[in-house]
Amino acid sequence: MDRGPDSRGVVDLVLKMREARGLDVRALKGNHEEALLQFLEQPSFGATWMEHGGGPTLVSYGVQPPPTRTDTEAWERVRDVFAETLPADHKAFFERLDLMVDVGDYAFVHAGVRPGVAWDQQAERDLLWIRQEFLQEKGPFGKVIVHGHTPMEEPQLLPHRLGIDTGCYATGVLTAVRLQDTDQRLIQVKAERRFG
DSSP label at 192? Predict the structure, then answer.
């Protein structure tokens, strides 16, 4: 949620959608959300977080990143301001994100799954970070895996996995997939500007 200019607004929207009647809104934890939480626990991680979208996230909450990336004391001050500024419901949102959601024949994860590992033995690190070991495996995985994490020019609708990350922050193309029984339909929207 930290690649665009309004991360705070995205979280507000998801929280509002969760309150709406008739909607079952589930949000997945990804490596960027893990980075936000790590920054709150370990301010020195801020410089690394900046490389992966942390700057726009801080700004969306009204917090300015330090002018230099190596100033440890400045990162502690920024973390303290961010911790005070971050609404309690947003912090709870980040802390309670799902690692995996199973729905029928599908499993939704941020990055993918470790091939050959049982569902209940999957490591959080793999669910948030895995790439090649998962992407190169043809499957089956027990369920069709719906994932993002690795941007592709075109979505990948394969028999055992659906990769729907089209790198909206860089391409301006946001991709989703509508799943109903065996029907898989792509939904794509082109943003007017890019955020990268």
Answer: S
